[in-house]
């Protein structure tokens, strides 16, 4: 498929003209990064192929993901990721890291383009991170929530087919394939069967405030660890305790991977073969 046609389709389908994002903390001072990305922070990151013969989807563009693509010795492919940077969980430092220059150089040599959608993929919709996680859990989606900005709602309110918070925590663990963590700030039962989900790094105070207003007391997200050096996570837990909101964490990666898995269907329907590449989850997120 002509790469420009595919990029244009993504642009329109995910309404990039109304979206905002910020990856200004990336190392952007090199010739491998597409010029428009340096101010827009979404969409095409590396423009290396005129034709796209296959798409690989991933949650983070980690080195291991790129190594796997390199190992397959393919050209004219697109890496589609939810994030613009790789991720390694850290208790102290910044968890995101740049794609190394030698990897960017190799991508150009092998005609591997890179396209990312962060906020546009979080935005409530068919392929969004929270919608995809809710579907994987088998929960019935009722409505969107979690107003991120004027154009974006990144979470969902769901109806659970169970009444126990512990049962829900076990369902989350089985679905993501590893332990989940429960912060039992509220009652052990799920009030009215209502559960909120905001995949990824959803431990921000404004989320708990919105849940309290909606009288919802069970919340699933990815990153839940209280970080002494990052006050919003501490305030998030204080508010969750004050309002009696049970919090279930299942790691940044694992709560967002289902969206990138579902995107293989999007690309297949567009006429391009697509494959999801498994990344790494970190229990340190919890």
* Average of the residue pLDDT scores: 97
The secondary structure category is alpha/beta
Largest sheet: 6 strands, mixed
DSSP helix fraction = 25-40%
**Rounded to an integer, what's the Rg over CA atoms?**
19 Å
- Summarize the helix and strand pattern as letters: HHEEHEEEHEHHEEHEEHEHEHE
Number of helices: 10
CATH class of the largest domain: Alpha Beta
The order of strands across the largest sheet is 7-8-10-11-12-9
Number of extended strands: 13
Describe the fold and architecture.
This is GTP cyclohydrolase 1 type 2 homolog. Belongs to the GTP cyclohydrolase I type 2/NIF3 family. InterPro entries: DUF34/NIF3, DUF34/NIF3_sf. Keywords: Metal-binding. This protein has 286 residues and is α/β, with parallel strands linked by helices. The chain has two domains: 3-118, 3-Layer(aba) Sandwich (Udp-n-acetylmuramoylalanyl-d-glutamate--2,6- Diaminopimelate Ligase, Chain: A, domain 1); 123-254, Udp-n-acetylmuramoylalanyl-d-glutamate--2,6- Diaminopimelate Ligase, Chain: A, domain 1 (3-Layer(aba) Sandwich). Helices cover 35% and strands 21% of the residues. It has helices at residues 3-13, 37-40, 63-71, 101-109, 119-122, 129-137, 165-176, 205-214, 231-243, 252-269; strands spanning 43-46, 54-58, 77-81, 86-87, 96-97, 112-116, 140-149, 152-159, 181-183, 194-198, 218-221, 246-249, 274-276. The protein has a six-stranded mixed beta sheet with strand order 7-8-10-11-12-9, sandwiched between helices. Strands 1-6-3-2-13 form a five-stranded mixed beta sheet, sandwiched between helices. The N and C termini lie far apart (41 Å).
